[in-house]
Every structure is written in C-alpha cells, then in structure tokens.
Amino acid sequence: MTNSQKKNTDLLIVGGGIFGASIAYYFKRDNPDKEVVVYERNEMCSGNTSLAAALLSRVRTNQASIPLAVETFRVIKELEEITNDRLPVHYTGAIHLAVKPEKVIQVEEMMKVASENNIEWESITDSHANKMVPWLNASKAEKIFYVPGEAYTDAYLLGKAFVNAAKALGVIFKRNTEVTDLIKSNQNVIGISTKSGIHEAEKTILAAGVWSTYLAYKIGLGLPMAPIRSQYWITEPSETLFLPASPTVIIPDASFYARPQGNSLLFGIREINQMYCDLRILPEKITEYKFSTDNGWQDLIESFKKIVPFFNQFGNTGIKDYIAGFSAYTPDNMLIAGECRDIRGLIIAGGCVGSGISVAGGIGLGIAHLAAGKANPFDFSQFRVDRFGTYDPYKRENILRCAEARSKKTCG
Ligand SMILES: Cc1cc2nc3c(=O)[nH]c(=O)nc-3n(C[C@H](O)[C@H](O)[C@H](O)COP(=O)(O)OP(=O)(O)OC[C@H]3O[C@@H](n4cnc5c(N)ncnc54)[C@H](O)[C@@H]3O)c2cc1C
C-alpha cells in the first residue's frame, strides 16, 4: 500500500448504495469545485437498495426522520430535471388503520405529527377504504387514516437517479473497487485503502450499508447496528382484488404492510422471529446469502391468523415471488448519521432501520452539509453515532436488541 493515488480529494465516500449516491449528489451540487469520489465494490445500488419494497413514507413513528423523507419527495423532481429521465413514482397515498387501543393512540399520534409537518391526511370509513383497496377488510378498525400524498417507487431506479445526477455534476464513481480499510492516523481518518493503493481525502464518509460495521470495527469504532432480515412477498395477479392505483396499507395490529405491484400485491410482515447475521460471514454480494430454504413460508404461517381478519382472501391467494435482504437496524430504531466524537475526518451514514429509501434525500443533504462544514438543516441529535457509548456490534446481546427493534417497528 505504498503507491499513493491522489491526495487532493475533498470528499471520499465508501459505498455506492442510495445513501452514498445521495450524499455525493448533494455535496457536488452545493460545492461544484470540490472533488468527490465514490468507491463501490460491486455495481452501483446493487446492495440492499436494489431489494427494497420502496414505500416512500413521510408519516413515520420516528418524528426526526419525517423532514428527511419530505426532502426525498422534494428532490425527485430535481433529479428528473438533471437526468432528463422520469422516475416511476406512484403517488397512490397510504392508509394507516388501527384496532387495539395502543395502536389507535400510535396512529393518532402519527397523524398529529403529520399535521405539524403540513402533511395532509383525512379520516375515512371502512367502506371508503374497501372501495380504494378491494382486498382490505377494515370493518374492525377503530381508526382509519388516509394520507393522499404518500408514494412508492422503484428503489434501484431512485438510487441510480442520484448516481446519474451526481455523475452529470462531475462526481467520480469507482465501481468494482473494494475499500479494504479506513486509514486512521492519530484519531484522524485520512482516507481509505484499496488493493491498488491508498487514497487520501479531507473527509471520508462511511456509507457501506450493513457492511459499514466491519470497516468501522477495524479502526476501533463500534457502530450500534446489526444486519437484520427484511422480507416480502408478491402475490399472483388478480384484477378484482389488486388495483395498481390502490394506496399502500399499513396495519400495525397485524405487523403488516402492502402496496400494489401492477395487478399483484407486494406485502411484508414484521416477523416474530427475526433473522440476523454475523457480520463476519456476511457475503460481499447480498444475493449470495441464503436467507430461507422455505421462502419465508414458516414466518407467513405464524402471521397468518393476524393477517386474515384484514385480508380475508389471504389463504386463497397464490404467491409468485419472494425477496429478502438485510437492513441495518439499531437498538432504538433511529438512524446513525453524523460525525464521530473521537475520530475526526470520518462521517457515518447508516443504520437505515429499513427506511433508507424514504429518508435518502434528507440523509444526503444533511451529511453533505456536515462534510462541507456547514450547519445541518436537519436535527440529527437523535442519530448520534456514540449515543450508546462504547458499543460492541458483535456481542450477541447487542445484535438481539437490534432484532427486537425491528419487531417493534410499525410504520412503513
Ligand atoms: C427486503 C427489503 C425491503 C425494504 N423496503 C424498504 C421500503 O419499503 N422503504 C424504505 O425506505 N426502505 C426499505 N428498505 C431499506 C432500504 O433498502 C435500505 O435502507 C437502503 O437500501 C440502505 O441504503 P445503503 O446505501 O445504506 O445500503 P446499500 O444499498 O446496501 O449500499 C451499501 C453499498 O456499500 C457497498 N460496500 C460495502 N462494503 C464495501 C467496501 N468495503 N468497499 C466498497 N463498497 C462497499 C455495497 O456493495 C453496497 O452497494 C428495505 C430493505 C430490504 C432488504
């Protein structure tokens, strides 16, 4: 590692998923004279970004993430203009419904916060909900809220739109190039190393998704997150039950969410038994990980009784596809975003808690501001890297805390 490649890079980003691409875009947009280089060991956005169900939700239980998602909605038009390409964003709205008193309180609180953020919503009846979503039986719901502006998209294409916009502005993308180490000298990260040498930079962003923990740990930084499986299924089509223009549906009582996929239904659950992975055996390509021998069938069976009261035809509906990947969950379901207290020159963008597509805009803008030494337009105080103190991400107990956090997640 003696041949030094370049020393005047201003911003170096490890990871070309939606977080890395979004940070690169905003930083270059606002600092056109600075050099930005992104390292990706596979193809751009081929990690967990390519697998996401891609619900774009601004109304979330985690209030600090709402402005970040609002920024994602705003930037979509900007990306379309720069890339001269239309993104498939479907503004079908979302229905949140609740039966049990604690879930009613939760969704009511979410709508209160939505109003504070100027996000429109309305109460609707179960027959109105059923008209918009023929498969849905909401007759037992105490509260049904419709948020008309919510959307879903294709996560890979949104990620690639950030990449293409960043490229158009002059960001350099190094594909198929693995970062083997972060280089730390006297509590400063001064760049990275690859198999072909060292690359120094003023600031380094670690945005390598679930793999970030591995690189951080090598320089003595324990990131409070773990790879926890997210999985979803796609049903056989039905022109009567599944309408392409139906809203997405979020049912905390059943730990269930769904959105249209043409005339099929894409749906996911928060399983009772979470699957997690030891980082040391996580493959470099997520598609090489064997998530389930039964395509999550056992998890579906366990959730069956909870889902059927809301989706009466569930048992008669065929499944045609199964997708699984890892999201980086944290013990408190909050993102990890910001500078490190004891290590200068390094900024972390991770701990996506299964919402990285929705919040990508805000993460990109906020981290780009921090990297440029400007005031962050968002409040990242709840996302602090060191909020759990000294943390061992390999400790089983800590991994289980992250898995449990996923079970408790109730928004889309
Ligand atoms: C099944 C599933 C459903 C989901 N549904 C939703 C949803 O509906 N809505 C939502 O908002 N979010 C959803 N998510 C979450 C979303 O996919 C993630 O939050 C988001 O993709 C995280 O982006 P990222 O850039 O942090 O990670 P990734 O996309 O995983 O990118 C990290 C990149 O870093 C690269 N990398 C790793 N190590 C190195 C290295 N050493 N050197 C160079 N490159 C490296 C990887 O190859 C990878 O491309 C879902 C996730 C899954 C798995």
Stretches where pLDDT is under 50 for at least 5 consecutive residues are none
Percentage beta strand: 15-25%
Instruction: List SSEs in N-to-C order.
Output: EHEEHEHEHEEHEEEEHEEEEHEEEHH
Instruction: Examine the secondary-structure arrangement and name the CATH architecture of the domain at 8-73 and 155-225 and 331-402.
Output: 3-Layer(bba) Sandwich
**Tally of DSSP helical segments:** 9
CATH first level of the domain at 8-73 and 155-225 and 331-402: which class? Alpha Beta
Major sheet summary line: 8 strands, mixed
Give a count of the beta strands, DSSP E runs of length 2 or more: 18
Gross geometry: globular
Task: Determine the fraction of residues in helical runs and give it as a percent range.
Answer: 25-40%
